């Protein structure tokens, strides 16, 4: 048991190591030279860590953006009480979560080997958080659950989810990438599917976001780095300007966080920091994909014939960089709307976790653009904010209240909100 837990923590719980091991195994199965094995494995790990580094830069910038806009709307953080919280939950159920994650991955591999669903889910960090959230729902619903039963049920649920989810999104992935080499393995799948479906009926495929005709004086907008900085800069400056005119403790604290720097200038720098983080993520994706796809052929041909790697959502960004921004803009606009609506209707303070809204909204934007062009991308973003806002409210208030509602407010994602009620029903039947 200790060995299994160690493997779960240090391999499956460490995405870079898990993916490095997959690349290593794939290259060895292809009988590559020692030089090729070392180079491919190291570059894959480095590429993945570059993605993580870029994501951390984005997160840091959004850590300013989120409280800035909360202050604009005069919203306070949700106060919760009477729940375990992530630390206590990990102490009590963490080993069950990691063991279920490990066994669930093995079920995924077996299903890929013996069924027509040839997808292996490799987004390690999402494997952990999804299993954690679903465990929180089960424990909240069933109370004192037997360890073995929790592990068994979670393992089957996760194994099925990690196998079926990439299969559902693959028809649209083929449209986006132009091939069948890679799949999407991410909890933004539900909003991406909705974006693609609604984009087909409500959008205009001919008006592709990547074919937008710009006047010569605006050709700089074709550069994804520039359009990212411009969009975020506009939102940051608007928020900062409003805050400067507010004389509240929160506004004064935000302005003070800029130190000796002018608050508007500070906001502009944060927008460029965000754009830099996106550029780093995309560089890491290109480096990582360049190694994982060829190496994966070794596993596909030897262990799981015909298998495809299901990878993190930034893999789709290079295919439609304009749609990435449009998706986030749609998600942000929706988040502002639902902030006000939820606060004034059900008295719930929606935490618009910008990292979720960006990555999920951007992915939905790419899917929406594939079927509905610019309008489809914007619709995809708005769908994302709608699912995240109302899903967070339902989960925090009804599905996970006594266990880890704190985690649901920042780490729960679109698929978790969509599948959450089903997990609650299953827990009521099986426990």
From TrEMBL:
Its record classes its membrane topology as: Multi-pass membrane protein
**One of the GO BP terms on file:** phosphoenolpyruvate-dependent sugar phosphotransferase system
Signal peptide boundaries: none
Q: Which domain of life is it from?
A: Bacteria
Described by its record, this protein's role is as follows: The phosphoenolpyruvate-dependent sugar phosphotransferase system (sugar PTS), a major carbohydrate active transport system, catalyzes the phosphorylation of incoming sugar substrates concomitantly with their translocation across the cell membrane. The enzyme II UlaABC PTS system is involved in ascorbate transport.
> What family is this protein classified in?
Belongs to the UlaA family.
- Quote the protein name from its UniProt record: Ascorbate-specific PTS system EIIC component
Q: Taxonomic lineage of this organism?
A: Bacteria, Bacillati, Bacillota, Bacilli, Bacillales
């Amino acid at each position: 048991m200790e060995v299994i837990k160690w493997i779960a923590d240090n391999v499956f719980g460490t995405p870079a190591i898990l993916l490095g091991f997959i690349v290593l195994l794939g290259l060895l199965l292809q009988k590559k030279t020692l030089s090729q094995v070392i180079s491919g494995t190291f570059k894959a790990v480095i590429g993945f860590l570059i993605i993580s580094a870029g994501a951390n830069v984005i997160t840091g910038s959004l850590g300013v953006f989120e409280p800035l806009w909360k202050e604009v709307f005069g919203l306070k953080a949700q106060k919760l009480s009477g729940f375990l919280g992530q630390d206590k939950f990990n102490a009590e159920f963490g080993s069950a979560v990691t063991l279920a994650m490990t066994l669930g991955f093995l079920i995924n591999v077996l299903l890929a080997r013996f069924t027509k669903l040839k997808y292996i889910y490799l987004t390690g960090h999402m494997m952990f958080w999804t299993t954690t959230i679903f465990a929180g729902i089960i424990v909240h619903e069933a109370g004192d659950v037997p360890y073995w039963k929790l592990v068994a049920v979670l393992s089957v649920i996760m194994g099925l989810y990690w196998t079926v989810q990439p299969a559902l999104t693959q028809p649209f992935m083929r449209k986006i990438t132009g091939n069948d080499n890679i799949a999407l393995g991410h909890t933004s799948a539900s909003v991406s599917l909705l974006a693609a479906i609604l984009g087909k009926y409500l959008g205009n495929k001919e008006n592709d976001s990547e074919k937008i005709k710009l006047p010569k004086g605006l050709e700089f907008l074709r550069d994804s780095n520039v359009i990212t900085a411009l969009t975020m800069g506009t939102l940051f400056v608007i928020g900062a300007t409003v805050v400067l005119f507010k004389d509240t403790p929160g506004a004064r604290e935000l302005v003070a966080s800029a130190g000796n720097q002018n608050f508007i200038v500070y906001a502009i720098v944060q927008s460029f920091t965000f754009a830099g983080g996106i550029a780093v993520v995309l560089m890491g994706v290109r480096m990582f994909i360049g190694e994982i796809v060829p190496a994966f052929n070794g596993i596909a041909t030897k262990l799981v014939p015909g298998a495809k790697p299901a990878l993190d959502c930034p893999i789709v960004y290079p295919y439609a960089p304009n749609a990435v921004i449009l998706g986030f803009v749609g998600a942000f606009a929706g988040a502002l709307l639902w902030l006000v609506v939820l606060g004034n209707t059900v008295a719930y303070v929606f935490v618009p976790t910008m990292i979720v809204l960006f990555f999920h909204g951007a992915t939905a934007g790419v899917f929406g653009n594939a079927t509905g062009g610019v309008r489809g991308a914007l619709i995809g973003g708005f769908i994302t904010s709608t699912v995240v806002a109302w899903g967070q409210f339902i989960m925090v208030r009804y599905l996970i209240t006594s266990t880890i509602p704190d985690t649901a407010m920042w780490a729960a994602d679109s698929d978790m909100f969509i599948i959450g009620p089903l997990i609650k029903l299953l827990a009521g039947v099986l426990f």
